[in-house]
Design a protein that fits this description.
Elements (H helix, E strand, L loop, with lengths): L1 E9 L2 E6 L2 E9 L2 H10 L4 E6 H4 L6 H10 L4 E4 L5 H8 L4 E4 L1 H5 L1 H10 L4 E8 L2 E4 L4 E6 H9 L5 E6 L11 H8 L3 E5 L5 H9 L4 E4 L1 H4 L5 H7 L1
Parallel strand pairs: 1-4, 1-12, 4-5, 5-6, 6-7, 7-10, 10-11, 11-12
Antiparallel strand pairs: 1-2, 2-3, 7-8, 8-9
Helix pairs in contact: 1-3
């Protein structure tokens, strides 16, 4: 199982939000590039870079992301506010993968075009609350279930999904193992949300997930990349 370190950027700083709420955040560093280098040094397999300003349509951290891509050697996957084919291609010039949320559900034909050109470099974000997929910074429901969303995008050639349980994200309350396990039966799943301990990581591995994103627990010192890798 791949171990991915999260670097969420807002206003040029590394932050973590609780349940995606920009008014409920903790700032961990004013140097995202140095933070990225740190997680690379301790052994992360990949970095998950989230442009929260782009996600909330309040700005962009593209220049910082470009600096991170030049500063580290491990792969990057970039998420947050990628809502056009042009933006996706711009981010792919800096990263191994892009994570698409809102655009995937609002403009599925764009995803078909993107996947056709970049077959193994597109991850679809499945951000769920109560079993329904949410978009637009987790504020709007698509009316689509997790299972239906995964089936829909598997059919057009998407090979990986980032599954986040919004109610648990940034809370350290533990992952939603049942939802992860159900999804992992049919697709490659990156697990995210609520992870607080090595025991949680073991449960995610047992659920059949292909990767795990470590965020708040890592920043708060509850788990380390080294220990997560030892059980992953």
């Amino acid at each position: 199982m791949k171990v991915i370190a999260a670097v969420d950027i807002m206003g040029g700083s590394v932050v973590r939000l609780v349940r995606g709420n920009p008014d409920d955040k903790v700032e961990y560093s004013n140097d995202p590039v140095e933070t990225a280098r740190k997680w690379e040094t301790v052994g992360a397999d990949m970095l998950h870079i989230v442009d929260l300003d782009a996600a909330f349509s309040t700005g962009s951290n593209s220049e910082l992301i470009a600096k991170i891509s030049q500063a580290v050697r491990i792969p990057l996957q970039i998420a947050g506010g990628i809502r056009s084919l042009e933006k996706a291609e711009e981010m792919l010039s800096m990263a191994s993968r892009v994570v698409i949320g809102t655009m995937a559900y609002r403009e599925p034909e764009v995803i078909r075009k993107l996947v056709k050109k970049n077959a193994d470099r597109v991850t679809i974000s499945v951000d769920q609350m109560g079993g329904m997929v949410m978009v637009k910074g987790w504020k709007e429901s698509t009316g689509t279930t997790v299972a239906d969303a995964i089936s829909q995008f598997l059919a057009v050639g998407v090979d990986e999904f980032l599954l986040t349980s919004i109610d648990r994200d940034g809370t350290l309350q533990g992952p939603d193992i049942k939802t992860l396990a159900d999804a992992a039966v049919s697709a490659r799943i990156i697990a995210s949300g609520g992870i607080s301990s090595i025991e949680d990581v073991i449960k995610i591995r047992s659920a059949g997930c292909s990767s795990v994103i470590i965020g708040k627990a890592m920043y708060d010192g509850k788990v380390s990349i080294e220990k997560v890798k030892a059980v992953a």
